[in-house]
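This follows on from our talk about sequence and fold. Can you supply me with one protein entry, sequence and fold together? Could you add the entry underneath, on a fresh line?
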Amino acid sequence: MTFKARMSACAALVALAPSAPAFAQEVNSQVTDVITVTTQFREQSLADVPINVSAFNEELIERLDIRNLEDMALFTPGLVIQEQSPNNTGYSLRGITTDSGVATAEARVAMFQDGLSISRSRGSYVELFDIERLEVVKGPQPTLFGRGALIGGINIIQNKAEFENSASVFAGLGNYDAYEVGGHVNYAIADNYGLRFAAVNRVRDGFIENLGDGDDLQGRDVLAGRLVLSGEPMGNFSFDLIANWQQDNGPGTSFKSGVLAPVGGDTSPYSAADLRLIDGFLNGEPLGLDRWVWGLTALTSWDINDSWNLATVTGYRAYDSLEIFDPIGGGIEFLNFAEDATGRQTSHEMRLSFDNGGPLTAFGGFTYFYEANTQRIPGIYNEAAVQAFFAGAGSFDGFVPPLTDEQKRQGVTPLDIIAGGISQILRSPVSAQDLADVTNPFPYSIAGLLGSGVALPLRPNYTEEAANAGSTEALDFFADASYAVTDRLTLTAGVRYTDESKQSSGYGGTDMGPNRVTFGPMLILTGTPSFAAVNASADFDAWTYRVNAAYTLTDRINTWVSYARGRSPDLLSLDSNSPTFFATAPAEIVDSLEAGAFITLDRGTLTASVYRSEYENFRTSVFDPLTATFTPQNNGEATQTGAEFQGDFNLTDTFDLMVSYSYNMAKFNDTSGGQPQALGGNRFRYAPEHSVALGARWEVAAGDWGILTVLPSYSWQSHVFTDNDNDRFVGVRQDAYGLLRARVRYESVDEGYFAEVYGNNLTDEEFLIDAGNTGAGFGLPTFIPGAPLTYGFRVGATF
């Protein structure tokens, strides 16, 4: 979309509004209502929270049609969420990305559900339904979000049971054979007890045709439910018992090769793909995802007296997922991987808070956290195709002596000499191109021919398996206090101490004997001696903190400045390049300074901030197919500066407008400790320099017959890179794009029922949600498209 077109789309939203009075005029005697949040563990107006928070209450969630986490990200400055599948979602907050599924990885963006950590990658993506509020807190928040909140966190607050009867239901149909149905039932058991059940089922066929094995790609099939028991057995004590569960069954991710085109097709990510599954893999399981996530949470709150409150959050959570994929996506039976991931987590937090209405408020407590995770990676390979890739990568060059100067001048390569030798052995012409052709691979072992002169056939279904497992037991102590020095100035300081014990293990091997490509014990994945498990353990501890000052300029303008240190914990990970099979990675540290303001208007609110963050031990993950490792990599120091703005305006009694803007310049430093950095000058991946979003609600007509509302929205971002190495492969850059969405909604006067039509990506914009992926490690990057134009209708009722 051109710049002119983008501006036209933005102007169209504003043009919908009837003429509005200037903000400077006194429209009414009531100041705009401001969302109430609990970011600092007590109910506060968003205007009084001295940190950067984007909050969405039920009204705003409905207005913006936020039905999943990606929808929320469209309207949150600094947040990008890329869902390859529910099992493999990337969360990028101000350019800091969490997406690793390795069992020993640590989150850099914290995810919470009703205060319970759900940050583990393979279990973090949850469907949004029957939601009370969404809060996105930006900048390091060690005392609020704890371990893993390197650059902030996301908290999903679900509706709890109420002490009155109510119900709702909705259903819808859309293109790509989409359908959805959901709702809730709330039952008042007694005067102070309630039971609430909510559920949703959303299904959509894939929008990328698969010419190969399996269904069309990029579809979804999710079924989720929640049961909540809430009660107040005493006037000063309340509890919520919450059971969540979710099942995802998707047809597979469209890893479309940007190098190898399917027969009769092209390499465009938006046209048909040809994903293959080698016969016999995992007893014939299809491409796609099967994931279960479930958990139990207990929340309690006890007002000990008028000044003291004791609150607890106790939870157990588990996930099991199996995802099978073709990481090459080139219409050939090259290789397949599966990820069989499991996780179990137990945690308990106890927090004592003090607030007697005086100048001092404070909270402190402890958190116990334990998790155990596994990631099993089975692989199946066509040895001939893998050999062709290795041949093109120069893996067999050691079979020939160094080239002479004359051979170099003639353009002779080691593979040419190898091909000549094989031609003599087979008494049939073989070229270097034949040996490196993955689409029609040479069928005999090169190593076997050169080593013993035997034409050993390569196997089409060689299997091997590797796994990693990790457990963490952590105990945190935290304290945070705010003191109102004057009626206008409040100072806050907080500190957290973390003590962690980590264990890591892994194994790798095959029951098919040495492969016939290298005759080594493993071909692609990481192997261990005799297929045996290896183990290691380590202990770590650290301090993190925050300090800030809030100053009330006027009754309408609150300002604040904050300095905080964030930390992503130390890692203990498998590393096949290490003689012990393990390596430790130091904690990733960020020091961040931010200043902001919240302005309350008669017909709206404005919030804005500027920030600067400096990183040490910036962590990336690199896959090298020739050493078969996914290992964390320390990329030294990095710096980012940025600004964010968000406004919510009631321009007239019938027209509301929400607007946000984010600027983020995040780069790796050119040098670290005076030495050049490998990624120096590169931009963080998934970190657009500019992003803009607008969402409007226009009440077109109203009467005794009901209310007709138009709800358009538009989001735009500048270009991003999908890899921290901004030149790693062709197509690493996703150009700027914008997404236009709209709904037209009819609602009865009593809000008892509604009907609406909707459209997403109305201009059918082509954009990528990811590029590179595992295929990039083989020099064959793959590309995953975002959703095209989708549309449909919904009806619903409340009782």
Observations:
- Residues 1-31 have pLDDT under 50 and may be disordered.
- The two ends are 44 Å apart (CA to CA).
